[in-house]
Amino acid sequence: MSGRWWTGSKGKIGVSSSEAFVKKGAGILKQQRISRSGYLFAALAAVLWASSGTAAKFLFNNGITAFELVQMRTTLATGMLFCWLMFHNRSLLAIDRRDLPYFITLGIGLAVVQFTYYFAISKIQVAAAILIQYQAPLFVALHTLLVLRIKLPPVLFAAMASSLFGCYLVVGGYSLDLLHMNRAGVLVALISAVTFAWYTVRCEYGMKRYAPWTVVFYGLLFAAVTWNILHPPLTAFLRPSGFAQWWWVLFIAFFGTVLAFICYNEGIKRIGAARTSITATLEPITAGFIAWLLLAETMEVWQLLGAVLVIASVVLLQIKGKGRD
Questions:
Q1: Cα(194)–Cα(145) distance, rounded to whole angstroms?
Q2: pTM of the entire structure?
Q3: 47: Cβ–Cβ under 8 A, 6 or more apart, which residues?
Q4: Where do the structural domains in the chain lie, given as residue ranges?
Q5: For the segment 271-280, what is each residue's pLDDT rounded down to a tens digit?
Q6: Phi/psi of residue 14, nearest 5 degrees
Q7: Which residues contact 94 (CB under 8 A, 6 or more apart)?
Q8: How far is it, in rounded angstroms, from Cα 305 to Cα 301?
Q9: CA distance 160 to 209
Q10: What is the spatial distance between Cα 301 and Cα 287, in angstroms, rounded to a whole number?
Q11: How far apart are CA 301 and CA 83, in angstroms?
Q12: How many whole angstroms from its chain centre is CA 191?
């Protein structure tokens, strides 16, 4: 009776233990592949955001304001993603009317995330703004523990502590005097961290019913609507001049917004909000590497150590992690 066994008098055929073992093993391997791809998506989002941050600095130095850039970024990204979905998978545009309040608040939240981040940069040092915003994983973890009542594994807290301390070192936090910086800038940077964490957990909630592409599109759509209400509609598009400025605006809209947020949401769907937000702390490291590569900026020993800590925390999550929490 090779490969089969009989259940008795009723004559029903069951699956052998060896076949069940093979199926279980295949399921575990599939889950591991999904988990690895989740970390890859989150890391790619961090790289894209870091690259767009460098592009944004170029535009700011050439007279484009943060308000104008965010309006162009969200509006262009919405148009790009809409065209892609219309021609490739129109079904992803379909949503239930009852979910409109969810998508509207998600878009407003995304608009707040971008505004608070750029406002903080305008008031305090960029390094300080990044350091404060990347406390978001802590708020995600607190939400998971206190609101969702889900117990998180100790390895996640170890990875979180390692990544946050690593970010502190990478951005040179040891040389920042936060207590004597512009209080409004520090407060708004903290609000940016909270709203980014809120956006992360709300995306996780939405992707229980919708694909990441759908959640990203409607988040961007209502963020664009918000910015075209708060700022004179479409007037930002009159500001860029010359090929270089338009190239970087389009770069930020496509790579730093459409692709980055889709990768981030794909990461959330595969490995959960907490692990994705921790993995995204690779952004400061990437930004530092870009500055070293293109701007000939140097990194101190403590900053290099911080980079090692952040990378080690992501590796730790992958070795000890079990996919979504």
A1: 16
A2: 0.80
A3: 282, 283, 286
A4: 48-319
A5: 888 889 888 8
A6: -110, 175
A7: none
A8: 6
A9: 28
A10: 16
A11: 46
A12: 16
